[in-house]
Design brief:
heterodimer, A: about 160 residues, alpha+beta, Alpha-Beta Plaits, 3-stranded antiparallel beta sheet, two-stranded antiparallel sheet, elongated, B: about 350 residues, mainly alpha, about 60% helix
C-alpha cells in the first residue's frame, strides 16, 4: 500500500516536472513575443539556415591550397598528404618546375570531397604549410558526385 | 422542413468544430506542446507566401502530404476489410459528437434551438457504446493486414479494452446515481445547481474517486502513450503497420478525435459541461448576493466559450500526460485495470449509495 502511494507520488512528480518545463518555457516565449528581451530563452534551438552557430577556431572544414607570393600554390608535390590520407582522396600529378628552389609543382591537385573524412592528417603532414582546412565552409552538399571533386582552380585561394 | 434544416446545420457545425479541433490538436498542439516541454521550438516552417505564424499551417501541409501519398494495399492482406477498418474506426468516434452538449438552448425569434445535435435520453450510453465499438476497427485492421505484428497489436487492443472498459462503465454509475439521468443535457443542467449555496454541483466535487477512475480509464481508451499497447511503437509497431497514406491518417485522426471526445466527456460529466459557475439564464447570481444581468446572446456565448475552454484544457492535460510517462508494461496495465480501477469504482458505487441513503 505504501509502495503504491510512493508510486503515485512519483507519477505526480513526473507531471510536475514536464509541466514546469512547459510553463517556464511558455513564459519566456511570451516575453519574446511581447518584445521583452531576456537573458534566458524559451528554447535551446538554433534555427539553422537563418541562425548559424559560430564555428570554433580549431575547426576542420573545406581544404584550400595556400598560394605563395607569386600566386602559384606553395605546394611542392611531395606527395606526403596523398600518402598519409586514410581515405585516399587526394590525387597529385607532379611536374618539373623551372625555378630551381621549388623543383616540383603540382600540375594536378584533386581532392574528392565525397571520400574525404575530414581527419586533417594532410594538414599535419604538409611540410610547406601549403594545405589548410580553415575556409569555414561546411555546407558542401552538391547535386552530383562530379561537383564534389575539387581541382586546383577551386582549391587555390 | 425547417427542423431538418436545423439538424443538418447542427451536424455540419459540430463536424467542422470536431475536425478543426482534431486537426489542430492532434497535429499542431501535440507537436508544439511536446517541443515546449522538451525546450525545443517545434514545427514552424510550413508557410504560405512566406508567412509562417508559429507553424499554424503545419496541419494543412500534413493533410496535403497525407492525401497525395500512395494508397498502398499490401498484396497479402484481405483487401476489402483492410480498406474498411480505418473507416470503421473513424466512423464510430466521429458519431459520438452527436450527443455532446455544446451549450444550453439558444433562442432565435420564436424558436428554441438546443446546442446539441441530438438530445438523446441515453446520450451517455450512446457515447460509451460507440467508443467501445471503435475497437473493431483496430482488431479488423490487425487481422486483415495478415501480418503477425499487426495482429499482435490488434489483439493487445482487444485485451486492453476488456481490462479498462469495465472500470470506465462502473466509474460512471456513482455519477448516474447522483444525477439520475443518462441524458447528457440533463446531467449538465443538474450541475448548474449549487452545493451549500456557493459550490457548483459539479461531478468532481461529488465524485472525486469516480473522476480519477474515469480519467485513468479514459486515457486508456484513447490508446495513447501511457497505455499505447495496441500501437507499441518501439516493439511491435502496432495494428497500423500495413497502412499508409490517408488510411493511416484516418487512424491518426481517430486518435486525435478520441482525445477530444474523452475531454468533452470529462468536461460534461465532471466539470459542469457548458456551465459557468453562478451563471444562470439571466446572468450571474453571485453567492455573496447581488447579480449581474446579461443579455441572452452573451450568456450563450459565455457558455459555449466555457465548454470549449474546458475541453481544450483537458486536451492539453492529456498531451502533457502523453509526453511525460513511459508505457505501462502489459501485465502492469492488466493489474491497474483489474486490481485497482475496478475495485475502486465498486467502492465508489457502494460509498455513493451509503451517503445517498443517509442524506
Amino acid at each position: 500500500m505504501i509502495k503504491a502511494l510512493e508510486y503515485f507520488i512519483e507519477i505526480i512528480r513526473g507531471v510536475l516536472i514536464t509541466g514546469r518545463h512547459f510553463f517556464v518555457n511558455m513564459f519566456f516565449h511570451t516575453l519574446k513575443v511581447l518584445g521583452i528581451k531576456t537573458k534566458r530563452k524559451g528554447a535551446v534551438t538554433i534555427q539553422y539556415p537563418e541562425e548559424k552557430k559560430e564555428i570554433a577556431a580549431r575547426h576542420r572544414s573545406l581544404h584550400r591550397l595556400v598560394p605563395a607570393e607569386n600566386g602559384k600554390p606553395r605546394c611542392v608535390a611531395c606527395m606526403l598528404c596523398a600518402t598519409v590520407c586514410p581515405s585516399e582522396c587526394i590525387y597529385i600529378e607532379a611536374a618539373e618546375d623551372p625555378e630551381l628552389e621549388m623543383q616540383k609543382y603540382p600540375a594536378k591537385f584533386i581532392i574528392d570531397i565525397g571520400r574525404c573524412c575530414f581527419c586533417g592528417f594532410c594538414v599535419e603532414a604538409c611540410p610547406e604549410d601549403a594545405i589548410r582546412m580553415d575556409t569555414a565552409e561546411v555546407e558542401l552538399a552538391e547535386y552530383t558526385r562530379e561537383n564534389l571533386i575539387y581541382d586546383l582552380d577551386r582549391l587555390l585561394r | 422542413m425547417i427542423e431538418v434544416l436545423i439538424v443538418f446545420i447542427k451536424i455540419i457545425c459540430a463536424l467542422v468544430w470536431f475536425l478543426a479541433l482534431t486537426l489542430y490538436l492532434a497535429d499542431w498542439v501535440e507537436r508544439k506542446q511536446s517541443a515546449v516541454i522538451h525546450d525545443r521550438i517545434g514545427a514552424n516552417r510550413a508557410s504560405i507566401f512566406g508567412i509562417r505564424i508559429i507553424g499554424l499551417f503545419q496541419p494543412i501541409a500534413d493533410a496535403i502530404k497525407m492525401i497525395f501519398k500512395e494508397d498502398f494495399v499490401p498484396p497479402f492482406s484481405r483487401k476489402f476489410i483492410h480498406s474498411l477498418a480505418p473507416f470503421i474506426s473513424y466512423f464510430f468516434v466521429a458519431v459520438t459528437i452527436a450527443a455532446v452538449p455544446f451549450g444550453d438552448s439558444i433562442k432565435i425569434g420564436e424558436r428554441t434551438i438546443t446546442l446539441q445535435v441530438l438530445d438523446f435520453n441515453v446520450g451517455l450510453l450512446f457515447i460509451l457504446a460507440m467508443l467501445s465499438l471503435g475497437i473493431y476497427g483496430i482488431i479488423l485492421s490487425g487481422w486483415a493486414s495478415n501480418n503477425r505484428y499487426s495482429l499482435l497489436g490488434g489483439l493487445r487492443g482487444a485485451a486492453q479494452l476488456i481490462s479498462y472498459e469495465v472500470a470506465l462503465g462502473l466509474s460512471l454509475i456513482g455519477l448516474i446515481m447522483i444525477y439520475p439521468s443518462l441524458q447528457l443535457s440533463t446531467i449538465v443542467r443538474t450541475q448548474g445547481e449549487l452545493l451549500f449555496g456557493f459550490l457548483p454541483k459539479w461531478g468532481i466535487f461529488l465524485q472525486p474517486i469516480g473522476f480519477l477512475v474515469f480519467y485513468f480509464a479514459a486515457i486508456a481508451e484513447t490508446k495513447r502513450v501511457p497505455f499505447d499497447l495496441p500501437e507499441g511503437e518501439s516493439e511491435i509497431i502496432g495494428f497500423w503497420t500495413e497502412y499508409g497514406g490517408l488510411k493511416w491518417g484516418l487512424f491518426m485522426m481517430t486518435d486525435g478525435m478520441e482525445i477530444i471526445v474523452v475531454s468533452a466527456l470529462v468536461t460534461t460529466l465532471f466539470f459542469g459541461g457548458w456551465q459557468v459557475p453562478w451563471l444562470v439564464a439571466e446572468g450571474f447570481h453571485w453567492p455573496w448576493g447581488g447579480e449581474w444581468l446579461l443579455p441572452h446572446w452573451v450568456v450563450v456565448l459565455l457558455q459555449v466559450a466555457a465548454f470549449n475552454l474546458k475541453v481544450i484544457f483537458f486536451c492539453w492535460l492529456q498531451v502533457l500526460i502523453r509526453w511525460t510517462y513511459p508505457r505501462f508494461r502489459y501485465d502492469q496495465l492488466m493489474d491497474l485495470g483489474w486490481k485497482l480501477l475496478i475495485p475502486l469504482s465498486l467502492v465508489n458505487i457502494v460509498g455513493t449509495g451509503i451517503v445517498m441513503s443517509i442524506i
